[in-house]
Amino acid sequence: MKSYIHATITSTLAWAGNIYDLLLITYVYSFLEKIFNLSFFDVSLLFSLGLLGRVVGGIIFGSVADKKGRKFTLMIGTGGYSVFQAILAFSPNVLTLFLSRFIEGIFMGAQWTAGTVLAYENSPVNLRSFIISVVQSGYGLGYMLTGITYLLFLPYIDYEWRFFLLVGAFPLILLPYIKVKVKESSVSNYVNNKIRLMDYHRVILNASLAMSGMFVAYFVVFGNYTILAEDWAKMSPEILGDLMTIANLFLAVSFIIFGRLASVISVRKLIYIGIAGLGISLIFSVPLIPNILSMFIGTIFYAFFTGFWPLMPLLVAQSVPHEVRGLISGLTYNIGGFVGGLSNTIIGLIANVQSLHLWVDLLGYLFISVVFVSVITWPKYEIKS
After folding, report:
1. For position 77, which CATH number holds?
2. CB 3.0 to 4.6 Å from 338: which of 55, 64, 203, 317, for a disulfide?
3. Which domain holds residue 42?
């Protein structure tokens, strides 16, 4: 099997585990509120700490990946977030809970920063857009697996919720495979000291805004969907579990479809199609009046049109040289993730169950527009290395 295939498989699965651990906690908010005496704002902050940690991890380990290697950083990141997910699952107090979530986020940032770039740099040039989309499909795969796990644990989750969270340590099994089968990127050990980060300030700005817009548009919906579905729309846990599984299966497939289309259709045109699809489906996913059928269908389409996401890291990778590719990719992606989490925290502070859907729609449409503006003003030059 060719080396880039091993790099793609491990990066995709490590990314799936990353997202799995990031979002698994949203299913047990009610237990965390009860056991640790937390408010809705507190659990929203807990979720956001993982995203703040990602920014820190993207900055620290982005530089490490550029200087010491992508493979090493991928292993550190994957092992680290898995271990701290296990610690989080059995946190004895609030301090341990919040601290383990933040440190877990740091290692999550390391994993994405290294894994995506490793797969990109190992793959043939004519397959890079497709490879990026396959790696990003791990997002949908990871979220889909949270829905499946939730359905499996549902009869026991009242007293087994800690073991439900512990399942998030499973990516540890990837480490031997990465060690033995994945080769280091052929360009990741070369650093050109003449490359200055600020030479690419336009890419950093536009990418950070676009990533932020994407994450806010995604997290305001899916970060709050268990509350919207169960508490506001009175959707049953079984239907919610089915919806999250189906929607994220569509998300995973759409990542691959958009990536494959990028070889024959302009990347920007595909992003505009995705933006239009998000704008149309959002009001059905989160309607003004509770309607379970509308929410079910709308959420599936909203997840599908999120499939243009892999095209944003692809634009970044094409726009900067390999000497700073890991740092800029990790930094901008994780800045976006933090802003997305911050928006979720703000909603937790100002919204209640009855007004939550209005804030979700407002922020969703606002930040979908931010993505559009960021892409339409994207710097013109591209670097193909």
Report:
1. 1.20.1250.20
2. 55
3. 3-184+197-376
